[in-house]
Amino acid sequence: MLGITLFTRSSRSVELTAEGELVLDYAQRVISEVDGLRDELDEIAGLLRGDLRLGGMWPTGLYDLYAVIADFHAQHPGVAIHFVEGTQEDMLAQIRADELDAIFTAVDPDALGDEFAATLLSEEEFVCTLPVGHPLAARTTSPSSSSRAWISSPTARTPRCAGASSRRSAITA
Question: In terms of domains, do 77 and 106 share one?
Answer without folding.
Answer: yes
